[in-house]
Automatic annotation (TrEMBL):
<dbReference type="GO" id="GO:0008652">
    <property type="term" value="P:amino acid biosynthetic process"/>
</dbReference>
<dbReference type="InterPro" id="IPR033939">
    <property type="entry name" value="BCAT_family"/>
</dbReference>
<dbReference type="InterPro" id="IPR043132">
    <property type="entry name" value="BCAT-like_C"/>
</dbReference>
<dbReference type="GO" id="GO:0004084">
    <property type="term" value="F:branched-chain-amino-acid transaminase activity"/>
</dbReference>
<dbReference type="GO" id="GO:0009507">
    <property type="term" value="C:chloroplast"/>
</dbReference>
<keyword id="KW-0028">Amino-acid biosynthesis</keyword>
<dbReference type="InterPro" id="IPR018300">
    <property type="entry name" value="Aminotrans_IV_CS"/>
</dbReference>
<keyword id="KW-0808">Transferase</keyword>
<keyword id="KW-0663">Pyridoxal phosphate</keyword>
<comment type="similarity">
    <text>Belongs to the class-IV pyridoxal-phosphate-dependent aminotransferase family.</text>
</comment>
<protein>
    <recommendedName>
        <fullName>Branched-chain-amino-acid aminotransferase</fullName>
        <ecNumber>2.6.1.42</ecNumber>
    </recommendedName>
</protein>
<dbReference type="Pfam" id="PF01063">
    <property type="entry name" value="Aminotran_4"/>
</dbReference>
<dbReference type="InterPro" id="IPR005786">
    <property type="entry name" value="B_amino_transII"/>
</dbReference>
<dbReference type="InterPro" id="IPR001544">
    <property type="entry name" value="Aminotrans_IV"/>
</dbReference>
<dbReference type="InterPro" id="IPR036038">
    <property type="entry name" value="Aminotransferase-like"/>
</dbReference>
<keyword id="KW-0100">Branched-chain amino acid biosynthesis</keyword>
<dbReference type="GO" id="GO:0009082">
    <property type="term" value="P:branched-chain amino acid biosynthetic process"/>
</dbReference>
Length: 378
């Protein structure tokens, strides 16, 4: 280990890394924070480009009390996962998509951002340095959390003079306490997550703090999470606190269109492509459900639509599911809206949701051939 005066700083952790797994209970991973071995840090000044970063021992960081992120919320985050394949190789899922989304968000938040290559290299280095924390195949994944923050001190409202990209990781299992069982959502009618012209479409930290009040109230009443409506007409679906939403009706798979107030989820985008590529299977399952529609569906196939989705359509759907890096594909068992509770068929685990979940996770875990070119093998 090389240290530049800081005993915790290492240039290459390879010698410290053992190939043995960390000694934790791999069978009971939830989505809680667990400290690991290394984090990645890269800094730059306002108006400059990020240059070389480095791995450091995982630990607390030092920030000025006047840092832009602490005072004015000038910060973004990302989320992606690494999987251990059955042959022991490590797989990342579409890391360049996260790099590009971070760039888009940084532009909106007046922050410099690392290049796509810098981001992907930094993610790879962080994952490899923490290899022993990647769950065994089938037991979960290593959640990777890149943070981009205004770390320099400001007092008057302005972009911070210095920025830090920090990447840390934590082994995770299922996001919701329900595990893979269907979740129960409540539609929020008073509070909104985002407004037109605001920052709903980027992954800024403030978007997530803004949902805590509604989410806490919902959880206190026994719901898993909250589904938000648009803030203008108050009748079209936006997203759930931490994920996007899809409905299935007949041979249609529909999700709200991205229009600035909805986070452009990488899982959302991938599920749309997986659904299109799996046309036959989706069609097949619909046929099983609606036998007398078989002929028409065989000709027409399943369609995926991105458009406005009203609450009425939601309540009339055959299936509802959520997508996100953390939640993967979570079936929705019930939706409550203004006191009315609607449950979804098959005990909430719809066949289409199940099919899409299997197709996506098989790809992510390296169990099926990656025809999309989405997997980065380390
Ligand atoms: C993710 O799915 O990666 C997210 O960033 C959502 C977060 C609230 C856990």
């Amino acid at each position: 280990a090389i240290n530049n005066g800081n005993p915790l700083r290492v240039a290459s952790p390879a010698s410290n890394v053992t190939s043995e797994l960390a000694d934790i209970d791999w069978d009971n991973l939830g989505f809680g924070f667990m400290p690991t071995d290394y984090m990645y840090i890269m800094k730059c000044s306002q108006g400059e480009n990020f240059s070389k970063g480095e791995l450091q021992r995982f630990g607390n960081i030092e920030l000025s009390p006047s840092a832009g992120i602490l005072n004015y919320g000038q910060g973004l985050f990302e989320g992606l996962k690494a999987y251990r394949k059955h042959d022991g190789n490590i797989l990342l899922f579409r890391p360049e998509e996260n790099a590009m989304r971070l760039k888009m968000g940084a532009e909106r938040m007046c922050m410099p951002s690392p290049s796509v290559e810098q981001f992907v290299e930094a993610v790879k280095a962080t994952v490899l340095a923490n290899e022993r924390w990647i769950p065994p195949s089938g037991k979960g994944s290593l959640y990777i959390r890149p943070l981009l923050m205004g770390s320099g001190a400001v007092l008057g409202l302005a972009p911070a003079p210095e920025y830090t990209l920090l990447i840390y990781v934590s082994p995770v299992g299922n996001y919701f306490k329900e595990g893979l069982a269907p979740i129960n959502l409540i539609v929020e009618t008073e509070m909104h997550r985002a407004t037109p012209g605001g920052t709903g479409g980027i992954k800024t930290i403030g978007n997530y703090a803004a949902v805590l009040k509604a989410q806490s109230a919902a959880k206190a009443k026994g719901y898993s999470d909250v589904l938000y409506l648009d803030s203008v007409q108050k009748r079209y679906l936006e997203e759930v606190s931490s994920c996007n939403v899809f409905i299935v009706k007949g041979n249609l798979i529909v999700t709200p269109a991205i229009k600035g107030t909805i986070l452009p989820g990488i899982t959302r985008k991938s599920i749309i492509d997986v659904a299109l590529s799996q046309g036959f299977q989706v069609e097949f399952f619909f046929n099983l459900l609606n036998e007398f529609d078989m002929k028409e569906l065989r000709c027409g196939g399943a369609k995926v639509e991105e458009r406005l989705v009203s609450v009425d359509e939601l309540l009339d759907a055959d299936e509802v599911f959520c997508t996100g890096t953390a939640v993967v594909v979570s079936p929705v068992g019930s939706i409550t809206h203004q006191g009315r509770r609607v449950t979804y068929g098959n005990d909430g685990v719809g066949l289409v949701s199940q099919q899409l979940y299997s197709a996506l996770t098989s790809l992510q875990m390296g169990l099926s051939e990656d025809k999309m070119g989405w997997i980065v093998e380390l």
